[in-house]
Design a protein that fits this description.
alpha/beta; binds inosinic acid; seven-stranded mixed beta sheet; 4 helices; 189 residues; Maf protein
């Protein structure tokens, strides 16, 4: 019987899954949604959070799985909210961030994709996209999309129709896809 999915994406965030699916579909990788509230430790780096999340996810789903951890790093706030982006979003939201950012608006979005299957310890794929925090909320989108303008663009992620071709998520998944497809070829050689 043909296998339905190549891997699973574990998350409680359906928006992230929709983007991951769209991106990986284009690389010919079939990804299923393992909807699951992953325990998130507070740590100094999103790498540590991703490793802990993927081990947790693999223990639950027992299939090849990826998770993603992201952070928004604002230069003038010394990288805040960074690894605390999820907590800060829930507490102060985009309006709170806009109040904190005054003149210097440089920022970057970072993504860490962590992969785990039965044999090995997690493998990580990291990427970021630099940009600026907008002066006000623009467009309808999830998370920090309405306030993040990627470099070279005038629109926020929420306003852009091609976010999935330039985001931190796209860049990290592109690295993952190239590694995964290579691994698959060498497995069947
Ligand atoms: P986490 O990886 O789910 O912990 O994400 C950290 C925070 O960044 C959460 O508040 C997410 O909503 C937000 N976030 C992650 N990726 C994106 C994105 O592509 N657009 C907007 N917000 C994002």
């Amino acid at each position: 019987m043909p296998q339905l999915y190549d891997i699973f994406f574990a998350s409680s965030n359906k928006y992230k899954y929709q983007e991951v699916k769209k991106i990986l579909d284009n690389f010919g990788i079939k990804v299923g949604f393992f909807k699951y509230d992953l325990t998130e430790i507070q740590a100094d780096t999103i790498k540590e959070i991703a490793v802990q999340k993927v081990i947790d996810a693999f223990n639950q789903c027992k299939k090849p799985v990826i998770v993603e951890d992201d952070g928004l790093f604002i230069t003038s706030l010394r990288g805040f909210p960074g690894p605390f982006s999820s907590y800060v979003y829930k507490k102060i939201g985009n309006k709170g961030i806009l109040k904190l950012v005054q003149t210097k608006r440089n920022a970057k979005f970072q993504s860490t994709i962590a992969f785990c299957d039965k044999k090995k310890k997690p493998i990580l794929f990291e990427a970021n996209v630099s940009g600026k925090i907008s002066k006000n909320l623009r467009g309808k989108g999830w998370g920090y999309d309405p306030i993040f303008v990627p470099s070279g663009k005038l629109k926020t992620f929420a306003e852009l129709s091609n976010k999935n071709e330039l985001s931190h998520r796209y860049r990290a998944l592109k690295k993952f896809a190239s590694w995964f497809l290579n691994k698959r070829v060498s497995t069947y050689r």
